[in-house]
Design goal:
Number of strands: 2
Structural class: mainly alpha
Order of helices and strands: HHEEHHHH
Number of helices: 6
Distance between the termini: 45 Å
Radius of gyration: 16 Å
Length: 139
């Protein structure tokens, strides 16, 4: 007879794996540790760094895709009236296309993708991506 935790670990779509994937996705997005919108240009950031899902996290099959995110300060994430994905989605889309064309192309290619999530596989993919980023920073 299996414990409740063992049963959850056997189910790749359980909340156990979903929570773990959420944490790993956030960790991966925070690896650059600089606001994608303001940090590289030398502009002043406001607030803490926040990971933003480019395609809504409610699209469960893309929720944990490493490409489906960008790290922004709270000003760029929620409050900037010209570029914030929440306050000015058209401006954000233009900004993304200009500064991150590979991500913008990925968004266009996957915008209407549907499917069932596999949170356990997402965890494995994110753990590998985090490990790869760490090895490229500290050879």
């Amino acid at each position: 007879m299996k414990s409740k935790l063992a049963k959850k670990r056997d189910n790749p779509r359980s909340t156990y794996w979903k929570r773990r994937a959420d944490a790993l996705w956030g960790e991966y997005q925070h690896l650059p540790n600089v606001c994608a919108m303001h940090g590289a240009s030398g502009h002043t950031c406001a607030g803490k760094l926040e990971a933003h899902h480019i395609i809504s996290r409610s699209v469960v099959c893309l929720r944990h895709e490493p490409t489906n995110g960008v790290l922004l300060c709270s000003l760029g994430h929620k409050y900037c009236t010209r570029l914030s994905p929440h306050a000015a989605p058209v401006g954000f889309t233009s900004w993304l296309e200009r500064w991150y064309p590979v991500k913008a192309a990925w968004v266009k290619a996957n915008l209407w993708r549907t499917g069932q999530p596999d949170y356990k596989a997402a965890c494995e993919k994110l753990e590998a991506a985090i490990k790869q980023q760490a090895s490229t920073r500290n050879p």
